[in-house]
Amino acid sequence: MTDNELRKAIGTLRDRADEARRHGNPEDAEAIEKTIRDYQDEMSTRL
């Protein structure tokens, strides 16, 4: 993935994690946030 694709994916996943919490699915939100952290780690290694 390119940096821009990762940024876009992170933004989309943050929205999905927030929505999961609003709908009472904290486990789903946590799984999504793990993916966000993985993507952020990938971006940080590129710097």
TrEMBL record:
Residue numbers spanned by region Disordered: 1-47
Superkingdom field: Bacteria
Name under which the protein is recorded: Uncharacterized protein
Per the UniProt record, the source organism is Rhodococcus daqingensis
Taxonomic lineage from the root: Bacteria, Bacillati, Actinomycetota, Actinomycetes, Mycobacteriales
